[in-house]
Design goal:
single chain, 366 residues, alpha/beta, Rossmann fold, 7-stranded mixed sheet, 4-stranded antiparallel sheet, 12 helices, globular, binds adenosine-5'-triphosphate, binds magnesium ion
Length: 366
């Protein structure tokens, strides 16, 4: 594991349930089934795929909130797959989770100051009350809130502001890595870009590594350096986001991209995309797991599982070379002024430049 890799998964498997015996009928849910990836220090790494493909399970194993059934996870050079006790406490400080739902993830009976300061009690127990208050004030400012908000309660804030409180709380222990599991999907569209830009800003300012999980490719397309596309517990394509989005090789990635509505003049257009439903992860198809929905399926796909192959841009498809050339990417530039403005923000965030998200919460629309 080279120094610039902060988090690495090697053949990670996470199965749920199943009774083990070979005569048993109850099969385990193969939520994650052989995932290997490397996340580099300081990058934004996105994990995408439709509901139920195993994104959250993978994230929980990467953070050692779950123990892998098989395979291993290394963080900062150390095998954390089965970490316990003080190792685990230290890890909880180094890797922080941003939840999807800022409504249910914040205890409504705690003031914002308490919520943001609480992790400090665990990870910086030597800090005195006054220093802690000062640190909370700094954290609130870093996420675009005001120090005096420390005395208020979560219900007094909008969804976007609540997510900012969640982010401040996640930053309190000075983590090296943040994992956001659908960090903006519960928010109003108009606020999503602000929160995404905030995360991009913080990553740059604090030297964080960011892992973002989303089922909506539109959300991560402009903010991520690299992307992994998951299908039924496995990664089917991985590479630099620019390359994957501009020239997707796997038919599943192509279908996901084709499903993003694009603005053509005034009319949003979606193109035909995925056939059928996601098969059960307790009984996945043989060979390539995508074959039951793939328009390019051949006999080999039913018989043999393709490995994730390639340098840099990797794909798990027997026929990607033939298929990739035929893909016509949807026009990426939206035409409406509001959408233009939003995409300008995304682009600025992606470029890592100065991004002007609203810092005055009183004016934030939500
Ligand atoms: N604790 C659990 N016990 C049993 N099955 C589980 C458990 N957690 C997840 N699963 C199953 O594992 C599969 C993957 O779930 P997971 O939550 O990781 O998907 P996801 O990609 O995050 O989906 P979503 O986009 O809906 O959040 C699903 O079939 C789910 O029902
Ligand atoms: Mg999930």
């Amino acid at each position: 594991m080279s120094d610039d890799v902060i988090l690495e998964a090697v053949d990670v498997v996470k199965h749920f349930g199943g009774s083990g015996g070979w005569l048993s009928k109850k099969r385990p849910v193969q939520a994650v089934d052989g995932v290997s990836l490397q996340i580099r220090r300081g990058e934004t790494f996105a994990i995408v795929g439709e509901s139920g493909c195993g994104k959250s399970t993978l994230a929980r194993v990467l953070m050692r909130l779950l123990e892998p059934t098989d395979g291993s996870v290394r963080f900062d050079g150390k095998d954390i797959s089965h970490a316990q006790g003080t190792d685990l406490t230290a890890l909880r400080g180094d890797m922080q989770f941003i939840f999807q739902d800022p409504f249910s993830s914040l205890n409504p009976r705690m003031s914002v100051g308490k919520l943001v300061g609480e992790p400090l009690e665990v990870h910086a127990p030597e800090m005195g009350a006054q220093d802690r208050r000062a640190r909370v004030a700094t954290l609130l400012q870093q996420v675009g809130l005001r120090p005096e908000h420390a005395d208020r309660y979560p219900h007094e804030f909008s969804g976007g502001q609540r997510q900012r409180i969640g982010i401040a709380r996640a930053l309190a222990a000075e983590p090296k890595l943040l994992i956001g599991d659908e960090p903006v999907s519960a928010l109003d569209v108009s606020v999503q870009a602000q929160v995404i830009n905030l995360l991009a800003d913080l990553r740059g300012a604090l030297g964080l590594t960011l892992v973002v999980i989303a089922h909506d490719l539109g959300v991560i397309r402009h903010m991520s350096d690299r992307v992994a596309v998951m299908y039924l517990g496995r990664i089917v394509e991985m590479g630099r986001a620019e390359e994957v989005f501009a020239a997707p090789r796997h038919p599943y990635t192509q279908a996901l991209l084709a499903a993003i509505p694009v603005m053509d003049g005034a009319r949003p257009q979606t193109r035909p995309s995925l056939l059928g439903e996601l098969p059960s992860p307790s009984d996945p198809p043989t060979g390539c797991r995508f074959h039951t929905r793939c328009p390019h399926k051949q006999d080999l796909c039913v018989a043999q599982s393709p490995a994730l192959a390639g340098e840099g841009h990797q794909t798990a498809c027997h026929y990607w070379e033939e298929i990739a050339g035929a893909f016509e990417p949807p026009a990426p530039v939206p035409k409406s002024p509001a959408a233009e403005a939003r995409f300008a923000l995304y682009r600025a965030a992606a470029a890592g430049g100065a991004v002007h998200h609203k810092t005055d919460p009183a004016t934030e629309e939500d």
